[in-house]
Write a structure and sequence with these properties.
This protein is α/β, with parallel strands linked by helices. It folds into two domains: 133 residues, Aspartate Aminotransferase, domain 1; 254 residues, Aspartate Aminotransferase, domain 2 (3-Layer(aba) Sandwich). It has 14 helices and 17 strands. The radius of gyration is 22 Å and the shape is globular. The N terminus is likely disordered.
Length: 421
């Protein structure tokens, strides 16, 4: 049974990449009008829309397989467990992880980073030590490390960005010191789209024996990820950025770290045996998955990863780069528009301001024309402070966006320029 009477058609690499067909066929939410205009969804960095394959997988679980996972001996529990663990294997394959035991389901990137900071971080960082991040980070990759440093008497240090929104390898290397005990950085900036040279940053840290945590929330929808090639110690991403459900994500960590780390939370599932005197913890990954998990979310995430993998991350990235180049040229040519973040290597994010209009006003006018963008600080206030602005307008692209979407964005911005001068 499916979510509707229509058959769910699966994408394939053997088919020509056609964003318009994928949009019309696979993404029901996009087949609507907003204020009398065709919906143009350009807020993918905040959350992506969900293909029918994901919606159907979640619905099928609730309609046919709903039960708690693990330990159950009845058929529904066995089905649910199979779906849940199959999703874990899909995450492993998506990340190129050596072992499925290294994949921990979380609520998303934020929880994954907090998990590492609260366990591995507390064991690695002590008084007088330093934790290094970059000037590009999302609040989720700032605040947990601030909390860790405050608790341990350590210092949070920052590798600076330049006017392009780039952290150069030279700036990153200069920020590493003998006191640096842990490094955390984003693979792709959510506010600017800058793609960090993650493999190079990791190598610089590893030369000094410093473990590396990578925030992959914005990379997962755009780049092919191989944690083994990256050489990092931990990698986190969120399902809802990569066409999956909200409230689910994953953390990959090297088995040697996960085995030695204490549990993040206590409860059911993360134990092997419990008495009033002592608890023996479960093996990984279950040691870090206390309580009933988000089973439907994990199954939906697995379906999302299967969907994008079938299309091909390389083809998605190439399509989005074409859109980014088109949008950069067209939007940048409008009078009064100032682009923020001009790195030579970017994912599908275009961030900009108009001196005469607040980003919220721009976003409101665009919405009246059916164009959905994000206006604000994008949970990256230090980036905004660096550029001396309170906020930007951010248009971010997904696999279903088209050249017509860029044209609609530009037409809307022309109206904004006309209104505000």
């Amino acid at each position: 049974m499916t979510t509707s009477n229509r058959e769910i058609v699966r994408p394939s690499r053997s088919e020509p990449f056609d964003a318009a067909t994928l949009r019309a066929r696979d993404f029901p939410i996009l087949n609507q009008e907003i204020h009398g205009h065709r919906l143009v969804y350009l807020d993918n960095a905040a959350t992506s829309q969900k293909p029918r394959a994901v919606i159907e997988a979640i619905t099928r679980y609730y309609e046919h397989d709903n039960a708690n996972v693990h330990r159950g001996v009845h058929t529904l529990s066995e089905r649910a467990t199979h779906g849940y663990e199959t999703a874990r294997a899909r995450v492993q394959a998506f990340l190129g992880a050596p072992s499925v035991k290294e994949i921990i389901f979380t609520r998303g990137t934020s929880e994954a980073i907090n998990l590492v900071a609260s366990t591995f971080g507390h064991e690695r960082v002590d008084t007088g030590d330093e934790v290094l991040i970059t000037g590009l980070e999302h609040h989720s990759n700032i605040v947990p490390w601030q909390m860790l440093c405050r608790a341990r008497g350590a210092k949070l240090t920052v590798a600076p960005i330049d006017q392009r929104g780039v952290v150069t390898p030279e700036a990153f290397a200069a920020a590493l010191t003998e006191k640096t005990k842990l490094v955390a950085f984003s693979h792709v900036s959510n506010a600017l789209g800058t793609i960090n040279p993650a493999e190079q940053f990791t190598a610089l840290a590893r030369e000094r024996g410093i473990p590396v945590v990578i925030d992959g929330a914005q990379a997962a929808p755009h780049l092919k990820i191989d944690v083994a090639a990256l050489g990092c110690d931990f990698y986190a991403f969120s399902g809802h950025k990569v066409y999956g459900p909200t409230g689910i994500g994953a953390l990959w960590g090297k088995a040697e770290h996960l085995e030695s780390m204490p549990p993040y939370q206590g409860g059911g599932e993360m134990i092997r045996s419990v008495t009033f005197e002592e608890t023996i913890y479960n093996t990984i990954p279950h040691k870090f998955e206390a309580g009933t998990p988000n089973i439907a979310g994990a199954i939906g995430l697995g379906a999302a990863l299967e969907y994008v993998s079938a299309i091909g991350l390389d083809r998605i990235a190439a399509h989005e780069d074409e859109l980014l180049q088109q949008a950069t040229a067209a939007v940048g040519a409008l009078p009064g528009i100032e682009l923020k973040g001009t790195a030579p290597h970017k994912a599908g994010v275009l961030s900009f301001t108009l001196a005469a209009a607040h980003p919220h006003d721009i976003g409101t006018i665009l919405d009246q024309r059916g164009v959905a963008v994000r206006a604000g600080h994008h949970c990256a206030q230090p980036v905004m402070e660096f550029f001396g602005v309170p906020a930007t307008v951010r248009a971010s692209f997904g696999l279903y966006n088209t050249s017509e979407d860029i044209e609609a964005l530009v037409a809307g911005l022309q109206e904004v320029v006309k209104v505000f001068g």
